[in-house]
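Retro notes (design track)

What went well: tokenization of the new backbones is finally stable.
What didn't: we kept losing track of which sequence belonged to which structure.
Fix going forward: every design gets posted as structure first, then sequence, in one message. First example under the new rule, 81 residues:
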């Protein structure tokens, strides 16, 4: 099964968005449990920050990859330029 760059980016975006939702949920539980900033809460916040940086970059890459892809039904290696 061949995976296209577009499909890989879409899958990665969906997984990062799911992870983000889980981290937000975990942070709310951690916040309810203790008023102090635990190591776990700081790690969740750091991961969320990374995800908020990655998601827009992947979204932009999706459009670049989509624009560079050959039209459906055409083989990039068969194109003579």
């Amino acid at each position: 099964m061949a995976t296209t760059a577009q499909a890989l980016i879409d899958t990665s975006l969906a997984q990062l968005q799911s992870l983000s939702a889980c981290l937000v949920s975990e942070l709310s539980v951690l916040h309810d449990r203790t008023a102090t900033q635990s190591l776990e809460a700081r790690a969740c916040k750091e991961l969320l920050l990374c995800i908020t940086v990655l998601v827009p970059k992947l979204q932009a890459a999706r459009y670049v990859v989509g624009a560079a892809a050959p039209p459906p039904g055409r083989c990039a290696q068969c194109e003579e330029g």
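Added context from the reviewer: The mean pLDDT is 82.
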